[in-house]
Amino acid sequence: MEPLLLVVALLAIAVVTAIRARRRTRRQRELVRLCLDAGVAFAVVDPFPDTLQLPFRLFARGGARGVDMVVWDPRDAGAVRVFDYWYEDDAGHPRTSMTCGVVPLPFTVPPLSVCPRDLADPSDEAVPGVDVSLELETFNRRFVVSATETRAAVAFLDQRMMAALLALPLRVAIHVREDRMLLVAPSPEPEEVLALLEVARGLARRVPRVMASLYPPRLAEGPFEDRWLQGSWSPDPTSTERTAFDAAENEG
């Protein structure tokens, strides 16, 4: 009986794998066609070396992970881009997949998240901080805002940004860490991937300029060390230069 169960299990795995491969091929074919029509760039394999080093917990999850189906506008040189991301944990659970958009920011801000109340965020990246209530009640009814620092959320979500989020054609979760904004959607259809790219580019234009004065960018060289060179992101620099710098500051 056990050999029969093993055969059935192997057949089930083969069927699921075949269905997944067929869906993936169809998605790739449609994305290529849509990108050609829209004049945007597309790559099956991620051409950007920093994606898995972005400052989000999501990109360190699982024992296996990958980035593919990358879409970007050549005018942005890939600064704003959308891609499919997947990871598998070590417990043998099914693969978790989603579509992400990343936007660079001209400042370094404390973590904050903005999630539609009716969206199951597959990234599980929401900030375990305080819930923030904003002055626009319509926005509060549709979104849950959490942040480690209330001032950062209030400054980031000004009237212009809230209006843009309320008008989004897609339901996406937004997470801000350091100098990046991450948009997460639960694997939209190919035509929605291009819409997500335009959403990301539109939000990049609406980021409040005051943020750069409130939270200036951190230095990435010298005693403050570029943390992405460690191989994986961590919340604190590990450079011995930083230790020496702190010691000198304390003596002074």
The shape is globular
User: What is the CA-CA span between the terminal residues?
Assistant: 77 Å
What is the strand tally? 7
Structural class: alpha+beta
Radius of gyration: 21 Å
Describe the structure concisely for a colleague.
The protein is of the alpha+beta class. The chain is built from seven helices and seven strands; from the N terminus they run αβββββαβααβααα.
Could you explain the architecture of this structure?
With 252 residues, the protein is of the alpha+beta class. The chain has a domain of 175 residues. Strands 1, 2, 3, 4, 5, 6 and 7 form a seven-stranded antiparallel sheet that branches. Helices cover 36% and strands 25% of the residues.
For the structure shown, list the relevant keywords:
252 residues, alpha+beta, seven-stranded antiparallel β-sheet, 25% strand, globular, disordered C terminus
Blueprint of the fold:
Elements lengths: L1 H37 L2 E5 L18 E9 L8 E8 L7 E21 L13 E2 L5 H6 E5 L2 H7 L2 H8 L6 E13 L4 H16 L4 H5 L25 H12 L1
Antiparallel strand pairs: 1-2, 2-3, 3-4, 4-6, 4-7, 5-6
